[in-house]
Specification:
The complex is a heterotrimer. By secondary structure, chain A is mainly alpha-helical. Chain A has a domain of about 70 residues. Chain A has 15 helices and 7 strands. In chain A, helix 6 runs antiparallel to helix 8. The longest helix of chain A has 27 residues. Chain B folds into 4 domains: about 70 residues, Phosphorylase Kinase, domain 1, CATH 3.30.200; about 260 residues, Rossmann fold, CATH 3.40.50.740; about 190 residues, 3-Layer(aba) Sandwich (Dimethylsulfoxide Reductase, domain 2), CATH 3.40.228.10; about 120 residues, Beta Barrel (Barwin-like endoglucanases), CATH 2.40.40. A 7-stranded mixed beta sheet of chain B has the order 5-4-18-17-16-6-7, sandwiched between helices. Chain B has a 6-stranded mixed beta sheet with strand order 24-26-25-30-23-27. The longest helix of chain B has 19 residues. Chain C has one domain: Alpha-Beta Plaits. Helices cover about 15% and strands about 20% of the residues of chain C. In chain C, the strands form 3 sheets. Chain C has a 5-stranded mixed beta sheet with strand order 6-1-8-7-9. In chain C, strand 4 and strand 5 form a beta hairpin. The chains are: A mainly alpha, B alpha/beta, C alpha/beta. Chains in contact: A-B, A-C, B-C. The interface between A and C is large, with 75 and 82 residues.
Chain lengths: ~375, ~750, ~210
């Protein structure tokens, strides 16, 4: 890859990114009724979001074009939509969504505090995103009822929906949604930071950009957001403008960081669902038997796919003049053993040369056993 | 009465063995230990240095101790996971007494009340049946301080002749052979001499599994160009890549050594000058091996003639060498003869008492060396002194402040104690650090004998299989809960350091022993306040003896990473290598390097006799027993450490595919092995790495899984070691799994 | 912090005695506490006591990382191939199947691949990895090249391995005979070889 000209994947990814970003822009224009409902104070956020969309799509497209990813992407959709399995797959999909995504059960097994941190941060972010992005894009706005100033009506894509009294519990909950989200995120960040600060294992492998920065960003967003609320609720808007700018800086920076760092996993992770289906199909189908020990060790489909992927990547694990054909047909256990056998053989031949007596190293008198 | 108070399963349910695993604080990678304690492993004779991590008075893990010169951080799996024995759910936290009316068979009792019960029983039984009717069985995993104290306790407070220890099942053949040949019982060379040898000869030692750290020394020798010769009925891990493997038939080692010496003499591969100057008795031995032609040796040992010839040539022509052996040649009714045979080929080569001229037995137990020097053997007093020698008696009586007439004479060995119990001659017993129910041969007999005791008190940290028969169990201390010294297999005295306090009512063993003495009203000389005080008296008691510790202090040990005895004065650095030319010892007094008045080593005729119970038509195979790497001795500790249980959960019967085929046995089938004493049904492990006329069963398990139900209690006439390593056996394919399979966890 | 450049890993399976100290010690390491990452393989127990420890060889161009669809496996600049990044790993097992040495482990219940990371918490501060610290046979050795050359006079270190047409270069070295020092260890050629040190030979001698 590389060179002076742009490579095919880059061009392809760039096009995808442009198309998706354009699509979002169109939706914003439509949803905000020709930008009529856009909040001028949120323009910075809007452009950052568009940039993030471009970056994320570009990276996602690049990622999908890696041979192993492309293979899984194709296979995943293929097995999901297999005729006759769609209903069952859909049910299974919902089950997995709830266990893996909603409850994070797989993280629970890795550690309780790890789970608590992730679950709190995840739901905090989801809540915050669900509130802020539609507001930024002008897809939702609130107006007081013409005949009753104590009532608000919510408009979605410019269409009127439900109305509620400003002082009601529903109103309180709705207008303070970001506060609740901030509490969730701060709690999660605290737990995660504690783990990162005291665990030796975590300390050894973590990187600032990858592991610490995202926590700091989330913390900064949450805290500055809460300060805004505090400022207008109890302090008569003290330093509100300054805080608004500070908050905007943290959010915009995070949006720009999205495609590059740890947060990319939010978009990558759902691919796991496809893997699950791929594995199910593999387990039900033909198995690959190890061509050394004869034991089945993986699905034949996955082994064949890997051979294809390895070739695309330029690996040459082919074994010419051998019935084994490709090293991928050897099971992991045999691979481990063969390394030792190969080394042992080198030593044995070295010793045999030395003593020319290997036949005698291990001799029992035949009379001993009949 | 000492039959089990309730069904065995009920006892097991309460007291284990249960497996302990890493959990909670031990799994948390963020915990900083409060302190790190430099100490040693609690298991085998190598006594590897290790650092224990302590948090909130719990041992939570380990850190390799790279500076300790013997193992330089290396550890076997037992050492790695030893920390899991602390804070174990099975730990005895208070004294218990048997009570058939409670579900578990034992109920808690206040510590002082338990001590009083023990003292009263001792007084009553001794009043009725004489002082020797109360015996004490001890162990070689105790620190030297404890061993010394218990020896003194037995002689001065219990006033019994009948004290013996589980080293009787371990080291005694080597000890007796060494004393006969060298006048001293200690490894002649430090392990650092192994890599300096041209030939390393390993007889009857499964080094890779039973002394794993020694492996690196052997491989280092080979890396320096040495040839490795291994003699064993099985291709053990160390044997797999050795240069010459001699698959000896169990119990024929003396024959092999005689055959080797025969060839050495025939080819004049002997050191005449050394034999002349430093030994006596060569001519008689030379005459005795005349009959051991290669063909005869091959016929007896089951080793091919050519292999014997090659071994003799390599050994005979080497410039430097190291011969080591272990239980494989020692655990025989003629174990001393086997050891003497090994020593003969060393002496004939003249390669001893110098760098790269080495000989050693690989001591099995943690304090197998120190524990056999200071008076817990039935015939011995501190400083490796002889209880029958009037001078030695007088010396010790002076140190102890007692009348010579009050010092008991020599008692009987551990197995004979069991037989005396069976015959009603011994009525009461205290045991500590000894689990004969698992570890003695023919243990169904042992079980029956224990049931005849009028009173039995055990000191233990877990309720061992033997302690299940006790009337009172006193909660003793784990290795990491006390300090003291041990002497590892090189003869290096090292220091065990305390990491944590005893939990609950448990207390340090030496305190328990002194408490019993106090309750007996015989606390004279048994009022030490610390192990350090005991050690100071031991130094005095050993002064001038063969095992002279008088120049050793705790500080010197820490400073020098251990001190090799003999160390006769404060400014003496210790003696890593024995028998060096010009060296002085208290027996020879300068006349020569060996520990006899003339300073010369002794050749002793190594008489070959087949095993007491050889094969016949009825029992056509040989049974041999041994250890696996993840367990230690009777398994009282290792069968409670989860990861070690998982590594080797249950005993299996190893047999050759040829043999398996004859009986229609496939790998993993249930197989019954049967001898004249008992049988056991275990799963088969069909492997080509064992002689086809021999089966192997590891011995760490109790009850119906115990290999020692089958073994022969025949003993060596000199050392009294039992014949664990060879008896006649027959096998058959079992119809199905044994009854216990559904009831017991693997380690139980 | 990176693993210091002068410290290297040298393995010699021919020394292995199968004691599993490495396996037991591996789970004591803080980057994977409670999980043992090393493999201890019995080559063919019915015929030999040959065993071998298998640690990650830390390939220069790791196949496991290349075939990872989630881009979850990273090689740090010091050449250590790390465990899968937890947020990314999708537990597809591609790495487990593709690693030519058979190293990565799939922890199905955690939906996560974990592998030997040379005890990064220890090696990155200049300490020996757990397995190499405790290994009683020193089949696993961690130290300087000078040390190993001085200690293992008959051995030489090789870090190239051949699988059919593919040569793989690794950070970890394997000890081979110094006299006949091959350019690479031909692993796939061992297909036809027997395990070593097997049978007690019966009836082999004519005397």
């Amino acid at each position: 890859m590389g060179g002076s000209e742009l490579s095919r994947p880059v061009v392809k990814s760039g096009l995808w990114a442009a198309v998706i970003t354009g699509l979002l822009a169109v939706l914003i224009v439509l949803g905000s009724r020709n930008l009529a409902h856009l909040d001028a104070a949120l323009i910075g956020y809007l452009f950052a979001s568009l940039f993030a969309t471009f970056g994320l799509t570009y990276r996602y497209a690049m990622w999908l074009q890696r041979p192993p990813t492309a293979m899984y992407w194709r296979r995943g959709w293929h097995v999901f939509f297999r005729s006759g399995h769609l209903w069952r797959n859909t049910a299974e999909w919902f089950r997995r969504i709830s266990r893996g995504f909603a409850l994070n059960l797989f993280i629970w097994k890795r550690g309780r505090s790890r789970w608590a941190a992730h679950w709190l941060i995840m739901w905090g972010c989801i809540l915050a995103s669900a509130i802020t992005f539609p507001l930024v894009f002008g897809w939702i706005h609130f107006e007081t009822l013409p005949d009753n100033l104590e009532w608000y009506r919510a408009y979605v894509f410019g269409l009127p929906t439900f109305a509620f009294p400003v002082d009601s519990i529903l109103g309180f909950i709705t207008f303070h949604g970001l506060v609740w989200a901030a509490f969730l995120v701060i709690g999660g960040v605290m737990i995660a930071m504690r783990r990162r600060m005291r665990e030796h294992g975590a300390a050894a492998v973590q990187e600032f950009g990858e592991d610490i920065l995202p926590l700091l960003l989330l913390f900064a967003i949450s805290v500055t957001g809460l300060m805004l609320t505090a400022s207008y609720t109890w302090m008569k808007g003290y330093a509100f403008d300054f805080l608004a700018i500070l908050h905007a800086i943290t959010v915009i920076f995070t949006l720009l960081y999205l495609p590059f760092g740890k947060f990319f996993h939010i978009f990558q992770r759902p691919a796991q669902l496809g893997v699950a289906f791929y594995k199910d199909v593999g387990a039900a189908g033909a198995q690959a038997a190890c061509r050394r020990c004869g034991e089945p060790f993986a699905s034949r489909m996955q082994v064949e796919d890997l051979i294809t992927v390895e070739r695309q990547l330029g690996y040459q694990y082919e074994l010419p003049n051998s019935a084994i054909e490709h090293y991928q047909w050897i099971c992991p256990r045999c691979r481990r053993s063969m390394l030792a056998v190969a080394q042992g053989t080198l030593w044995e031949s070295a010793r045999a040369e030395e003593s020319r007596a290997s036949a005698l190293t291990n001799a029992m008198d035949p009379a001993g056993f009949e | 009465m000492a039959t089990l108070p309730v069904e065995k399963l009920q006892i097991i349910q309460e007291f284990g063995p249960h497996g302990a695993f890493m959990s909670g604080i031990r799994l948390d990678p963020g915990v900083e230990p409060d302190r790190i304690v430099k100490t040693h492993c609690c298991f085998c004779g190598q006594q590897c240095g290790i650092q224990l991590k302590v948090k909130d008075e719990q041992v939570i893990g380990f850190e390799p101790w790279l500076e300790f010169p013997f193992n330089r951080g290396m550890l076997c799996p037992k050492g790695v996971k030893r920390y899991l024995q602390g804070s174990h759910p099975d730990r005895l936290l208070n004294a218990v007494e048997r009570d058939g009316s409670v579900l578990s068979g034992f109920k808690p009792i206040e510590y002082e009340a338990a001590i009083r019960r023990v003292a009263e029983a001792i007084k009553r039984i001794q009043a009725e049946h004489g002082a020797d009717s109360f015996a004490i069985l001890t162990g070689a995993s105790l620190t030297t301080e404890k061993a010394y104290l218990i020896g003194k306790f037995a002689r001065t407070a219990l006033r019994t002749a009948n004290i013996d220890y589980n080293g009787r099942l371990c080291m005694v053949s080597a000890a007796a052979g060494n004393k006969k040949a060298f006048g001293i019982d200690r490894a002649a060379n430090p392990w650092s001499d192994i890599p300096k040898s041209e030939v390393v000869w390993i007889s009857g030692a499964n080094v890779g599994e039973c002394a794993p750290i020694t492996t690196d020394y052997v491989w280092q020798a080979r890396e320096n160009g040495a040839k490795i010769i291994v003699v064993d009925p099985r291709i053990t891990p160390i044997a797999r890549t050795c240069d010459l493997f001699l698959p000896v038939k169990p119990g024929r080692d003396a024959a092999l050594f005689n055959g080797i010496l025969h060839l050495m003499i025939e080819h004049d591969w002997i050191d005449h000058a050394f034999i002349e100057r430093h030994t006596v008795g060569f001519d008689a031995v030379a005459a005795s091996v005349k009959e051991w032609t290669p063909q005869k040796t091959a016929d007896v040992t089951g080793i091919a003639v050519k292999a014997i010839q090659r071994a003799a040539e390599w050994w005979g022509t080497a410039k430097s060498s190291f011969l080591m052996h272990a239980r494989g040649i020692e655990h025989h009714a003629h174990g001393v003869q086997n050891v003497l045979g090994a020593i003969n080929i060393v002496l004939a080569s003249g390669r001893i008492g110098r760098e790269g001229g080495g000989y050693a037995t690989i001591t099995g137990q943690g304090n197998g060396q120190g524990g056999r020097e200071h008076g817990q053997k039935c015939d011995q007093l501190p400083g490796a002194r002889d209880i029958s020698n009037p001078e030695h008696r007088a010396f010790i009586c002076k140190v102890w402040g007692i009348e010579e007439a009050d010092l008991p004479k020599a008692g009987v060995d551990a197995y004979e104690i069991i037989r005396k119990i069976d015959r009603g001659e011994i009525r009461g017993l205290i045991s500590i650090c000894f689990n004969p129910q698992v570890s003695l041969p023919d243990n169904n007999f042992v079980s029956g004998a224990l049931d005849k005791l009028e009173f039995y008190a055990a000191i233990d940290f877990f309720l061992s299989e033997t302690a299940q028969h006790a009337d009172v169990v006193l909660p003793g201390s784990l290795h990491e809960e006390d300090e003291g010294t041990v002497t590892q297999l090189e003869g290096r005295v090292i220091k065990i350091n305390k990491a944590v306090d005893c939990p609950g009512e448990a207390r340090q063993d030496w305190k328990i022993i002194q408490d019993i003495a106090r309750a007996l009203g015989r606390e004279h000389g048994l009022t030490f306040a610390s192990p350090g005080e005991i050690f100071d008296e031991l130094r005095i008691a050993s002064k001038g003896g063969v095992a002279d510790y008088s120049g050793i202090t705790y500080e010197k040990i820490e400073k020098q990473f251990g001190v090799f005895w003999p160390c006769p004065s404060d400014d003496h650095p210790g003696t890593p290598r024995l028998f060096e030319p010009g060296s002085w010892n208290p027996v020879a007094k300068g006349s020569g390097p060996f520990y006899f008045p003339d300073g010369k080593a002794r050749f002793n005729i190594a008489e070959y006799r087949p095993p007491v119970e050889d094969t016949d038509a009825e029992y056509p195979l040989m049974l041999t027993t041994g250890r696996v790497v993840s367990h230690f001795l009777s398994g009282s500790q290792t069968r409670r450490i989860g990861p070690l249980v998982e590594q080797y959960p249950e005993p299996r019967i190893e047999l050759h595919p040829r043999l398996a085929e004859q009986h229609g046995i496939a790998d993993n089938d249930w197989v019954t092995a049967e001898t004249r004493r008992g049988d056991t049904t275990l799963r088969a492990m069909v492997v080509t790495t064992i002689r086809p006329d021999t089966i192997f069963i590891p011995y760490h398990w109790p009850g119906r899984k115990s290999a020692n139900q089958l073994t022969n209690s025949a003993q060596d006439p000199i050392s009294k070691i039992p014949e664990y390593k060879a008896c006649a056996v027959r096998i058959r394919k079992a119809q199905g799994p044994p009854d216990w399979e559904a009831e017991l966890e693997p380690q139980q | 912090m990176p693993v210091p450049e002068h410290l290297e890993f040298f393995i010699d399976p021919s020394r292995c005695i199968g004691c599993e100290s490495c396996v037991q010690a591996c789970s004591e390491c803080d980057t994977h506490r409670g999980h043992s990452m090393i493999h201890l393989e019995y080559v063919e127990r019915s015929r030999t006591t040959q065993t071998t420890p298998v640690i990650c060889m830390h390939c220069d161009s790791p196949t496991c990382a290349e075939v990872c669809p989630a881009d979850a496996i990273k090689r740090t600049e010091d050449g250590v191939v790390q465990s899968a990044r937890k947020p990314r790993c999708i537990a597809c097992s591609n790495c487990v199947l593709a690693c030519p040495f058979g190293v990565p482990k799939m922890k199905s219940d955690l939906e996560l691949m974990m592998k030997c990371d040379m005890c990064y918490d220890r090696s990155s501060v200049g300490k020996k990895p757990m397995c190499a610290s405790v290994c009683p046979s020193q089949a696993l050795f961690f130290g300087t090249r000078e040390e190993i050359e001085q200690l293992r006079k008959r051995s030489a270190a090789v870090n190239r391995f051949r699988f059919g047409n593919q040569t793989v270069t690794t950070k970890v070295n394997m000890m081979v005979p110094r006299d006949t020092r091959p350019e690479y260890v031909d692993v796939a050629a061992a297909m036809e070889e027997d395990s070593l040190g097997g049978d007690i030979m019966l009836n082999v001698l004519s005397t």
